[in-house]
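Hi R.,

Here are the chain sequences for the assembly we discussed:
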Amino acid sequence: MSDVRLDNISKRFGDKLALSDVSLAIKDKEFFVLLGPTGAGKTTTLRVIAGLEKQDAGSVYFDGQAVNDLQPADRDTAFVFQQYSLYPNMSVYDNLAFPLRSPLRRVPEDEIRRRVTDAAEKLRITKLLDRKTARLSGGEMQRVSIGRAIVREPRIFLMDEPLSNLDAKLRESLRVELKHLQKTQGSTTLFVTHDQIEALTMADRIAVLDDGHIIQVGTPHDIYDRPATTFVAQLVGTPRINLLPAQRHNGSFRITNSPLDVPLPASEPPPEVVIGVRPEDVRPGDGAYTGSIALIEPLGVETILHIRTGEQTLLSVVPGTSSFRLGDQVPFMLARERLHYFDSSGKRI
Amino acid sequence: MATITLQNVEKKFGDVFAVQPLNLKINNGEFIVLLGPSGCGKTTTLRMISGLEAVTSGNIMFDSKDVTWLHPSERDIAFVFQFFALYSHMTAWENIAFPLQAQGMMRHDIKQRVDDVAQMLQIEHLLDARPSSLSGGDQQRVALARALVRRPAAFLMDEPLGALDAEFRETMRAEIKRLHISQGATTVYVTHDQIEAMAMSDRIVIMSNAVVQQVGTPAEVYHDPANLFVARFIGSPGMNLISATYSSGSIRLPGGNQYAVPDHWQSKLQNGLPANGSVIVGFRPEAARVHPEGRLAAQVYADDLHGGYSMLHLELEHGTVIHARSSRETSYPIGTPIKFDLDPAMVRFFNPETELAISNGRAS
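And here is the predicted structure of the full complex:
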């Protein structure tokens, strides 16, 4: 396994700047997620690392060695795509063995057998080895695709939304398995997704991209607890963070069109800010504020409450079933130590 | 508004049941969700209620009127589809007004109705725009307005949020529910998304393989699933389900764990399980509580942050992993030995042969 470094990568497609001065350092054995909306530059970054796309400027290093001039085949990366590209008429075993049987590799058959059975065991597809891949479910096919990457024992795994085509339940279980596998194998993995929950749950670190730029790099806790901009704040967390414009008012911030006064942050803030409050930090039942329950969404494990105060509606998440009823006046508080302050351009203060 | 009653309604395509005989009473003003994976029969059921699909047998009543063989246009319903189906050559206003014009309503009344519904959905500023210049969300608002403007006896909605991106779905979900509360119109809503179903509905009808699995409130289907299918389908992740063996008051779980069954369950398990005592123990992730003196033991398989909380994945033995909601403040490396307990009020039991829940004696 290897570390990966990107230095000042830029890439243009015609008029469109796909990547703008992207620099990243991915550690050996790290699970690194590139998160962002469609068109952010995530897949282009991955393709530049694989050598499938040539950057216009900047360099890619594996273990300190520039690989800019290496062909994709010589970079020793393994790519897993959203669409599983398996050979439908071959057995699972032969699909897994296929990359090792390449004339370039010439891996002996008993070594192939060892690696295939080992990968199958890890991915729990041992029972499927004799089956033709055309007869597998989506989840099984994606396990085989991942297995085909594993048997190669590459320096780096590159995964481009590998779970996106699967239904919600399968995605959940494969997410956990993939994370467990990556941690126990210690493989350096770059994983692209637009799904915030995949990023939060799987990553050691996340890079948030938007429009070809890196907005923030950090652990899942950093990204969730200290989002660098309102864009990042809204990108992670469900239900979404409450973003409330506020103005200076008698030594505190008054949230626009509401009776809510919120304390100033420690640093000297500008006169107008946007205050971010995660729904779990809006706590009904006690506190100095009051609002009325405008909507109740019971999700079983928790309940989303829409609390209306003045012209603002705040989302609140409480555990389990809520005893509040529609229209109830409830006191509530905001967890002070967990408030986020952003300036009018959306930057964290 | 109407009460909708389905009496032994079934649908066959050739020899294959799309919907097995189904009985359901949808109360006046109720928000009912038909929930299930693709191909379960939920959309066919909706289409039979609308009249777009003929029943193979059975009756459909709107209040006391038998509508089984009435044309869709004679049923006084409004349909909202996943795909917006707006007329592209008309403005939003003209799209919304269209069903009223088709009914021959007076110009003045049409304007009043369109203005009212536009205000309710906060789309007044979009009324002159053509659909192609609107965002997906705004197009869906216009489509909703067109359905609402008619004030029909019932709304039928077929995955209306399916084409929207995640953030917008959350917003629209709340908007539709708020509308329902203010309008009180009987609504039948089809989705495969269990979160949508839980958040919006008064009651959920869960279907699989053309058969109704359970009808209940969100709390009922979440806490007291009728069978293994519902236990797995509701919740994200679904209920933890572990194969185990019951014998005289105690359950042997994988990994050498023993679970002492609460007294009031013992006779029910004695009577409700196969003779060999095989049982499936079910509990929600929030029922497992990590505790240094916990009576159950496992190893950390993975531990991940979900934002406001963490999910601990615990391996009881090779191949048996359970999920436990935990605090985001503590994290555990893979392989860490963990002790935990189960909240006895949240543990459920299933017969592995019938896949049915053992009743806990409460009405559900």
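Chain B touches chain A through 44 residues (CB under 8 Å). Residues 166-183 of chain B form the longest helix (18 residues).

Let me know if anything looks off.

Best,
T.
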